[in-house]
Design brief:
Elements: H1 2-25, E1 28-32, E2 35-38, E3 41-49, E4 52-56, E5 66-74, E6 79-84, E7 94-98, E8 104-106, E9 108-110, E10 119-120, E11 124-127, E12 130-134, E13 140-141, E14 144-148, E15 155-161, E16 171-176
Antiparallel strand pairs: 1-5, 2-3, 2-16, 3-4, 3-5, 4-15, 5-6, 7-9, 7-10, 8-15, 11-12, 12-13, 14-15, 14-16
Amino acid sequence: MMFHALSICALAFVASAAIVRTRADDDTTELGSFYAYGQNLSGLPIFFNHAIAYIGYEASSNASTVANITFTEQSANSSLTVTPNNTVSLSASNFYINREAGAFSTAGFTNASTSSDSVTTTGFALYGSQLVWISDAGELEQKWWAVPTANKTNLYTLNWNVENVLSESAVPVVVKNKAPAST
């Protein structure tokens, strides 16, 4: 009878450990909204516009799916998902960057939750209040750039600049989940 009681206790322990692990794998943390800070950008919000990450307050004139968004971290794989702050239905919710050598591409949103050699939806983290991407070598990287749009002033796309190549029009930015102070 003693052996049977120990077996039941061991089975209960294993089952509870599996439940705890499953809960830990599903842990999410709401990070809030993100804002871009750089030269002449003093905390402009990042928003969803046609599955591309934009910086600013006003969408382009041809925008049909635009939303202020809240970012949530999925702790199991360090991915970021977004939800709209209004009733708009988003076409994609997984945040991604292009990490292919030489890429200077817009960051955006996809339905795919996996990564490839060029596009990744995982590896994001907060360093204090700053959004970083952790490379395969374990290095914290901040290669965010704001690229002005052609049709609106104070409207930018959020880009990932793999090689940190200087651009005449683009501005390096820091992305934070801290709103600018009210003035």
